[in-house]
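Q&A FORM
Asked by: J.P.
Topic: structure of DNA-directed RNA polymerase RBP11-like dimerisation domain-containing protein

PROVIDED:
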Amino acid sequence: MDNVPEREKMKKPDDFQQGKWFTITPIEKQEFTSEYKLDTYDHTVGNILRIELLNRDGWKTGSRDEKETQVLFAGYKQPHPLEPYIVLRIHTTGKSLKVLDAEDKSEISQAYTPDLALGNACRRAVKRLDDIAEQFRKAIRLARKDEEEEE
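REPLIED BY: S.T.
REPLY: Here is the structure written out as tokens.
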């Protein structure tokens, strides 16, 4: 027996495109709280999303904006190391915030829900990872350039 999940349990690319890689469970006993079961993910993604949801960097610099202070709790668990999924729980204030409507660019009021918080956290995480990848590419180019100059 090994630590690799069985192939038939793993998600296929079509499943991701159809949204079959996650399930949302609203917590009825607690308003503005949801749990998200994210298939094929582990602590790596769980911790990135938790940090982005809580915007830990902003706490240190004091630069947290109004939207991000609306996340009261964000945590995740991986129920078993051999099960390829995590459960992410998010609790927000549900406070009504002004956001831009995607279609006509007008301001509308919208409750800050766990779904909205997770979407924002995912966008920030992708941007942060893109920035890291770009810095890495620049460092590689500089290192290669220095090697060529030494020769």
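FOLLOW-UP: The chain has a mean pLDDT of 79.
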